[in-house]
Amino acid sequence: LKYLITIKRQNNPDSESYIQKFEVEVYGHVSVATMLKDLNEQQNADISWECGCMSRKCGACAMRINGKPMLACACFADEIRGRKITIEPLSKFPVVRDLIVDRTAIFEGLKDMELYLSSEAFNNNYTRKIRYMSAKCLMCGCCLEVCPNFNVNHIFIGAVGSVNAYRILSQEQNMEHKDQLNVKYKERFYEGCGNSLSCHDICPAGIEVDELTARSNAVAVWKR
Amino acid sequence: MKKVIIIGAGLAGLSATLELAKENAEIILVSNQPSERAQSVMAEGGINAAMNTKGEDDSPIEHAKETLVSAAGIVNEDAVMNMVNAAPNIVKRLIDFGVNFNMDGYFDVDLRKFGGQKKQRTVFAGNCTGKQIMTALIDAVRKEEIEGKVKRYSHHEFLHLVGDNHCEGCVIQNQYTREIIEIKSDAVVLACGGMHGLFDKTTGSVFNTGMAVVRLFSQGVVMSNLEMIQFHPTTISQGNKSILITEAARGEGGRLYSLNEDGKKTYFMEERFPELGNLMPRDITAREIYKELQNNKVYLDMTGVDQEIWEKRLFELRSDMKFYFKIDPAKEAIQVEPGIHYFMGGIWVDIDHRTNIKGLYAAGECAAQYHGANRLGGNSLLGAIYGGMTVAKSIVSDEESDSKSAIISNIVGCKENMDSKRKVSKAMGIIRTENSLRSALESLKDKNDEYHVFLKAILMSALMRKESRGAHFRGDYLGINPEYAFPSVVWWDGRTINVRLKKDGELD
């Protein structure tokens, strides 16, 4: 089957973006990641994009596919309506080249929230399942891309903050650090979240983002 | 206070970072991707440690024995003993870091069976053990970053070492701006992962291009056991990538069978190896599947696995199979084939993870240390963590000495060549012969850039070992030859590639 692929490209952070179109022939359950690889290998398209595991474990290949943030390795040609695929870089982060964006803001934000344990982990069996889910975050940026409140230059860190805060909030035993975490959590997440729930059902790792946000809010803000 | 550059922010790199931070070293952590994208996050099945929580009378000695049997005689036994002895405490420490391992009751970690091991010894976190461990270690390293002990250079690629008589630092390149930076240091640690990108199709990360070891080789860094490439028995092809089906699938009850043209099923592993059956070490299982594939199709049958096991221990495997291949493994068997999965060989290191160049260390999959001719499933996460810890101790205790080791200034040109890659991958398949290896080598004869020199070194290592040992199987030299009971070493002296067996005591 022939697919028309439209890619938004850009040579460097300061240059103008441009649109390039390709035709690709694929059959069956083929991912956009495989299509991009083929474009580079067979049509010498020389598209810059990031690809690691090809199995939604590393979060590298997040991009906008037909307007929706997804991992290219977790989006399949046969599951896309119509035979047109528009691929753009995530819009919330500065473009480096083509589909590569600079997601440094995510990592800097988590650092600023002081998300680390300063004690031995408190291992409560009841919270294990949710902690496990919290630890699955790929830092891909999909939940931030859909968020109406997130902007890299703004203090609000987005759902990546509430998701990752949970395991630390629930395992920290040094109460001084826990109090600091609460303050940071309010400042960098709770006060900026508009409860749009746009992050519902967007996580490619299957994290229930709203569930984790509710739990982090409960621990950090409502002291439960 | 020592300044240390660590190349690679995967499990080995983070483990070294944390250990060095305890010693108040100044750490520069260089990686071409953030830690979240490291290949370590792809590790699924688990980490081996003789936790002995199942009343099976397990001990580090048992763990060592099985690791050594699998390694088939070309591994440093003392290094293995050190690693297995440290394993139970490593797991306890990981729990303190907040890793969410599956538990058996309230106090004991749960264990699963893994290949080549008669006892349950593999500690696991669902089917994402690597990811769960990495997240906890990233959190721990974040603390050191905030305290100023660790400075990350993410999206930077290693280019080459600097120094005349010993390693004095390295040159890296910003992948966003292309800016080239030279950093001086007291030590450089290579934790750059396996050389997956040098081969046609593997289960590894696309980010692991192997170019770091290519460049290091051209600078005179000695490599070892490059011929020892692990084929994982159960993979599925997806484009030009192999997708792994974790060994846990068989550890939790999955069975391999072959299907011939007449529709007859043969559970060949169970028939041929009554004791360990489907859980024979990977080299043997992969070869048996390969043999079957000459005439039949091979399937992994998990339809007999209990519902509870699917829910508690293998839920990610099931959802991945449905998502990527539209197969529900609880209901139908999965067609599988062996695929390149892990490199036992790599940078030669001594027992304390020093390379042949003073001031240069290596740990994790890029180093040839704990696995000899074949790695046990569950020992890679352990080897990466323990290797990183050992590197740190060596750096702290090593004193400046006058001993010299020349670093060669590199040849230019480190560009991959798809045609050469395919040829080498084919010759280095599950079964190798003098003819296929020689003809691949012959075809690269006129190519003398860094990249091709390294590919030749791999072929020459395989040619030299005229025997079948562990993962290295020679169709023309069946069986182990005691004369080859040593690791191979290969190095570039600026003009030629030299390859030979490393007899005891040399180089160390």
Produce the secondary structure layout:
The complex is a heterodimer of chains A (224) and B (508).
Chain A: E1 2-10, E2 17-25, H1 32-42, E3 62-65, E4 68-71, E5 84-88, E6 95-97, E7 100-101, H2 104-112, H3 128-134, H4 142-145, H5 159-171, H6 175-190, H7 209-220
Parallel strand pairs in A: 1-5
Antiparallel strand pairs in A: 1-2, 3-4, 3-5, 6-7
Chain B: E1 3-7, H1 11-22, E2 26-30, E3 47-48, H2 60-71, H3 77-96, E4 103-104, E5 108-109, E6 111-112, E7 122-123, H4 129-146, E8 150-153, E9 156-162, E10 169-174, E11 180-184, E12 187-190, H5 211-218, E13 223-224, E14 229-238, E15 241-244, H6 248-251, E16 255-259, E17 265-266, H7 268-272, H8 282-293, E18 297-301, H9 307-313, H10 315-325, E19 334-335, E20 337-343, E21 346-348, E22 360-362, E23 367-368, H11 379-397, H12 418-427, H13 434-443, H14 450-464, E24 488-492, E25 497-501
Parallel strand pairs in B: 1-2, 1-12, 2-8, 12-22, 21-23
Antiparallel strand pairs in B: 3-7, 4-5, 6-7, 9-10, 10-11, 13-21, 13-24, 14-15, 14-20, 16-17, 16-18, 18-19, 24-25
Write a structural description.
- Chain A has 224 residues and is of the alpha+beta class.
- Chain A contains 7 helices and 7 strands.
- In chain A, the strands form 2 sheets. Chain A has a 5-stranded mixed beta sheet. A two-stranded antiparallel sheet of chain A has the order 6-7.
- In chain A, strand 6 and strand 7 form a beta hairpin.
- In chain A, helix 3 packs across helix 5 (159-171) and helix 5 packs antiparallel against helix 6 (175-190).
- The termini of chain A are far apart.
- Chain B is of the alpha+beta class and 508 residues long.
- Chain B has 14 helices and 25 strands.
- The longest helix of chain B has 20 residues, at 77-96.
- Chain B is globular, with a radius of gyration of 22 Å.
